[in-house]
Amino acid sequence: xxxxxxxxxxxxxxxxxxxxxxxxxxxxxxxxxxxxxxxxxxxxxxxxxxxxxxxxxxxxxxxxxxxxxxxxxxxxxxxxxxxxxxxxxxxxxxxxxxxxxxxxxxxxxxxxxxxxxxxxxxxxxxxxxxxxxxxxxxxxxxxxxxxxxxxxxxxxxxxxxxxxxxxxxxxxxxxxxxxxxxxxxxxxxxxxxxxxxxxxxxxxxxxxxxxxxxxxxxxxxxxxxxxxxxxxxxxxxxxxxxxxxxxxxxxxxxxxxxxxxxxxxxxxxxxxxxxxxxxxxxxxxxxxxxxxxxxxxxxxxxxxxxxxxxxxxxxxxxxxxxxxxxxxxxxxxxxxxxxxxxxxxxxxxxxxxxxxxxxxxxxxxxxxxxxxxxxxxxxxxxxxxxxxxxxxxxxxxxxxxxxxxxxxxxxxxxxxxxxxxxxxxxxxxxxxxxxxxxxxxxxxxxxxxxxxxxxxxxxxxxxxxxxxxxxxxxxxxxxxxxxxxxxxxxxxxxxxxxxxxxxxxxxxxxxxxxxxxxxxxxxxxxxxxxxxxxxxxxxxxxxxxxxxxxxxxxxxxxxxxxxxxxxxxxxxxxxxxxxxxxxxxxxxxxxxxxxxxxxxxxxxxxxxxxxxxxxxxxxxxxxxxxxxxxxxxxxxxxxxxxxxxxxxxxxxxxxxxxxxxxxxxxxxxxxxxxxxxxxxxxxxxxxxxxxxxxxxxxxxxxxxxxxxxxxxxxxxxxxxxxxxxxxxxxxxxxxxxxxxxxxxxxxxxxxxxxxxxxxxxxxxxxxxxxxxxxxxxxxxxxxxxxxxxxxxxxxxxxxxxxxxxxxxxxxxxxxxxxxxxxxxxxxxxxxxxxxxxxxxxxxxxxxxxxxxxxxxxxxxx
Length: 861
What we know:
This protein has 861 residues and is of the alpha/beta class.
C-alpha cells in the first residue's frame, strides 16, 4: 500500500488553494484572517473547510491536526493578523523565488533539493508566471522572461549547447502563458467547442457552457483591468476602478461605449460589459457566450486578427501589446499585466476593493484553467493522463496554426537547444501530410541559434470508435466490412501510412524534416502486431526517398527514417509491460539506433513491484500471451529453464486456452501463431485488414485466422482472471529485465525519459529506485553491474506537466542530490544524458539551414 504523501506536496496544495480553487472564487476572498481568539475568521474558515474536503482523499498518512498545521504555516507563516491577498502572493513568491538581474531564479539557500521539490509541486498547482510577476513587482522594469530559472550555474553551463528534445507532443508543447494569451485575444472570433470542453472530465464552474461563458467574461474583464491600469499609467486621471466602470463621465461610458457602435445602444453595451464583469466577480448567471463574444469584438475593434502562424502572430494579436509592447526580450503581456496589477494593489490601490475583486477573481479563473490542463499529483496511470490531455485541444484551437513555431520557441527556454523533434498525428491525404511537414519547418526561427528541426508522425492507439451512433471496441471482430479484430482501426492506420508513403514519393525532400514515426496514446488498447504493416509501408517508402536524396541532395546527408514507440509505461502486470517492449525488438518494429518512449517496465525493480502488486487482475487473453511469451524465452534457451517454473507456466497456459478457445490447445502451435501474427507476410496472405473469404494455408495460420475473426473467442478472452505473484515469476522478471536491457543497449537504442511525466503517471519513489538508474547507474552508486542503456531527457507534454526541458534537468538534479549523490557525479550523469539525447536524435544538421528549409517549403519564405 502506498505510504504517506510528501509533505512538500501538501504544503504546496495549501499554498495554492486561496488563489487557485473554485472555493476561493465562490468566497470572493481578498484576505486570510484570524479573530481575537486566534481562530480563523468566518470567510477563511469556509475556505479551510473546503480545503479539508478537497485534500482529505489526497492526504493518506496525515491526520487532520497535521494538515491543519501545514495549512496554517502555508497561509500565515507566523503572521498574527489578516493577510491581504497581494501580500500573501508576494510572500509566497519570495519564499520560493529571488531576483537575479532581470531574471527570476529559484531561491536555493541553504540547499537546492528541498526548494526544487517544493517548486515542482507548487508549479503544478499554480501558474508559475504569477509567482514570477509577484517576485518582480519591486523591479523598476518588467522581468525578461515569464519563467523561474531553476538551473544552477554549473548545470546551466552544461546545457549551453548540444541539448536535444526528442520526445515532445506538439499539441501540448506551448507554455500556458501563450495559450492563455491566444485564448483571451482570439476567443470572440473562435468560439470554443463546448462538446469538446466536456471531454476529459467536468471543467471548472460545473459545465462546459458555464466554463465557456466564464472564459468570455474573463477575457472582457482582462481588457477592463488593463484599460484602467493603462489610463493610470498614461493619463493618471482615474481615481478608482469603480469610477472607471460606473462613472457617467468615466472611460467605459464616455470613451469606450460610443466607439463600440452597439446596435442596441450605448447603455445596453455598458449593461452587457457590467454583466460580464459581475459574472467574473460574483459568478452566477450571465448572458450567453455568443452575446459576450459580440461585445468583446466591439471592445477589440472591427478588424479581426489574422490566423496565427507564428508565436509573433499570437503576441501581436493581443490588444495589451499596444500598451505594453511585445518583444522576445521581455516577459509576455500577461505576466506584465499581473505585475502591474499587483504593484497597484500593494501601493496606491490598497483600498480599491472593486479592482481587487476583479483582479483576484480573474486570476482565479486563469489559475483554474491552468489546473484543469495540468495533471494533478496523485492521479497516476496513463488513463488519467489521457483525460487531462483531451482537455487541451478545445482551448488551444486559437493558436493551433502556430503550434510548431510556439513549440520551438518554448523548448529553447533557458537551454542551448540544438535539435527538436515534434510529434503529431498524420493526415490521411498525402497533400495534407506534405503541408504538415512544411509547417513543421518553422522558418520563422531564423537566428544563428536555429536548432535542427524534425517532425515525428505518430499513429494513435484507440480502444474504441463510434459506428452507427454506438461506441464499439476496436478489438471486437464483429466488423462487417473487415470481419476481424482492429480491422477498421488498422485500415485507418494503413491510410495514414499510405499518405506518408505517397507524400515521400512525390517529394522525397520531405525527409529533411519528416524524421520519424511513432505509436502513442492508450498503450494497452492495441497490440503490437496491428502496426507491423503500417511501419513496413512507411519504412519502405522512406528508404526509396532516401536513396533518391543521396543522388539529388548528397550534402544533406540524409539518414534513414527513425522510429520510436511508446511502450512499457502502462501495464497491468510487469510481465505484460516487458512483453510489449520486447515485441518491438522481437518482431523488428524497431531497428538499431531507434528509441523507446518511456520504457519504464525494463527499469522497474521487480522485487518492489511484486511487494506492491502481490495480486493483480488481467484479461484471460493478455495473461495467456504473457505465458506464451515466457515459454518462448525458455524454448530459445535465453533463459535457464527451471523445470518447476516451466511446468507451472504450461499448466496455467493450458487452463487459459481451455477458457478462451473452448478446448485445450497445443501450446507449441499457439507459440508459433503468436509469432506468425507479427509477420507481415502472414497478415498480407490473410488479406488483413479485410479477411472475408481468405483461406488459411496451414494449421498455424488457421489459429491466427481464428484469433482474428472468432467473436465468441474474443469475448471469452476478455474475461478477467486474478493473477498472484510467485517466486518463479519474480525470478523470471529479474532475468528478462536484465536481458532486455542488454539487448536494447546492444542495438544502440535509447530510452526516452520524461521525469515529471514518470513522476505523475507512475510513482517515482526514491531516487535510488527510479527506473532511470537501472538504465544508467549513478557514478559511485550501488548498481555498477547493470547494463548501461542510452537515456535521453525530455518533456513529453509541457502544458500537462507544467515544465520545460531545462526544468526537467533541474528536477532530476535535485532528485540526485536528495539521494546523496555528490554534485560532481550528478552533473556528470546529467551531462552524459544530454549527450545521449543529442546522439540519438533523428534530426539532420541540414534542417538548421534556412536555405535547405526554403527549398523544401518555398511558399513559407
